[in-house]
Design brief:
Layout (H helix, E strand, L loop, with lengths): L1 E2 L4 E3 L2 E2 L4 E4 L4 E3 L2 E3 L3 E4 L4 E3 L2 E3 L3 E4 L4 E3 L4 E6 L20 E6 L10 E4 L4 E3 L2 E3 L3 E4 L4 E3 L2 E9 L4 E3 L2 E9 L2 E3 L2 E3 L2 E5 L4 E8 L2 E4 L4 E7 L3 E4 L9 E4 L3 E5 L7 E3 L6 E5 L8 E6 L3 E7 L4 E7 L8 E4 L5 E4 L14
Parallel strand pairs: 1-4, 2-5, 3-6, 4-7, 5-8, 6-9, 7-10, 8-11, 14-17, 15-18, 16-19, 17-19, 18-20, 19-21, 20-22, 21-23, 21-24, 22-25, 23-25, 24-26, 25-27, 26-28, 27-29, 28-30, 29-31, 30-32, 31-35
Antiparallel strand pairs: 10-13, 12-13, 32-37, 33-34, 34-35, 36-37
């Protein structure tokens, strides 16, 4: 079946090695591709809400559009070996800049399924369930992806925007913006990767050596900046709970909103046994210094703080935890001299 320019196909069923081709200007909606059926979407064509089950496949070429996939584990790969079907191990090779979607019925996604977004390709609204994987290659873009137990890997040169990690993991070697990490989800910014405007809602994010973040909001969960990682000249904002873990003292970002008993900063390399602190600032900002005599952390703080209100405790691993309960209404905000 061919869907030509100006044509629309609704609810088609492609099975038993059948083929549906969507050419430029054509549209399919709600197609069911199953039992070795194949749907191909050419440049300028659109496939909306395709459901692929039981070894069905959808290939979207560079310039094609596929959106609104339901319970999808998708795959794009920039390969030059042509199309080869391998049904059992989940490995699929497709033409350059092509997209392959592999789905199961809603709520059931086979382990080993994958999406690879290649150079020039774009995927939007994908949901990756447990056992599924999405890889965004150099030049590819993925937007509004939901990880519900699956994995998203953004390779060097690739980008992802608005990923919601409700379960599973996002791995960033390229760039990711506006990632939201909920409880049960995690993200890793690896060497060469950059994440901007992170939001932690109970999940965990680790920035590895060589990785970088630019701006984050912590409203629960843990953000760890490993030794050799960078927070750039950005602001880490606490918003009602959570922990910032610093694996070394070379931290140059600013810290804001640090005023809840549920919020902590863990200085892993500053020994609690000999730690002391000092704070100098005004009603807008200041510098918190914590040292054990050998390792010294200098943290730029945005807001109003008192040296006497900061408390230090052991992190249970030899390092130092910092806490700052809210300043009472009767406390003086005059900084120490």
């Amino acid at each position: 079946m061919n869907v030509l320019s100006g044509g629309m196909a609704n609810g088609t069923s492609v099975t038993s090695f059948g083929l549906e081709t969507v050419f430029a200007g054509g549209v399919t909606q709600g197609a069911l591709v199953s039992i070795d059926g194949l749907e191909t979407v050419s440049a300028g064509g659109r496939a909306l809400g395709t459901i692929v089950s039981f070894a069905g496949e959808v290939i979207v070429s560079s310039g094609g559009l596929a959106s609104g996939a339901v319970s999808a584990v998708e795959r794009r790969h920039d390969g030059a070996e042509g199309r080869h079907r391998q049904r059992h191990d989940g490995q699929q090779w497709r033409p350059a800049s092509g997209l392959v979607w592999r789905h199961q019925p809603p709520g059931v996604v086979s382990t080993g399924g994958a999406e690879i977004v290649s150079n020039g390709g774009a995927a939007s609204g994908t949901t990756v369930l447990s056992g599924g994987a999405e890889t965004v290659s150099s030049g590819g873009m993925a937007t509004s992806v939901t990880l519900a137990g699956g994995t998203q890997t953004v390779l060097k040169g690739g980008s992802a925007y608005g990923t919601i990690v409700s379960g599973g993991m996002e791995i960033v070697l390229g760039s990711a913006g506006g990632t939201v990490v909920d409880a049960g989800g995690s993200a890793v910014v690896s060497s060469g990767g950059t994440a901007t405007a992170l939001i932690l809602n109970g999940g965990s994010v680790t920035v590895m050596s060589g990785g970088a973040i630019s701006g984050a909001t912590i409203s629960g969960g843990t953000l760890e900046i490993a030794s050799g990682a960078a927070a750039l000249s950005s602001t880490i904002t606490f918003a009602g709970g959570g922990e910032l873990v610093l694996d070394d003292t070379r931290f140059r970002a600013k810290i804001a909103g640090f005023d809840s008993p549920a919020e902590t900063i863990d200085l892993r390399t500053v020994s609690f046994a000999s730690a002391t602190l000092g704070y100098i600032g005004n009603t807008l900002s200041g510098m918190l210094t914590v040292t054990d005599g050998t390792h010294t952390a200098r943290l730029a703080m945005l807001g109003q703080y008192l040296a006497s209100n900061f408390t230090l405790s052991s992190d249970g691993h030899g390092g130092t935890l910092i806490n700052d309960p809210p300043v009472s209404s009767g406390s003086s905000l005059t900084p120490p001299h």
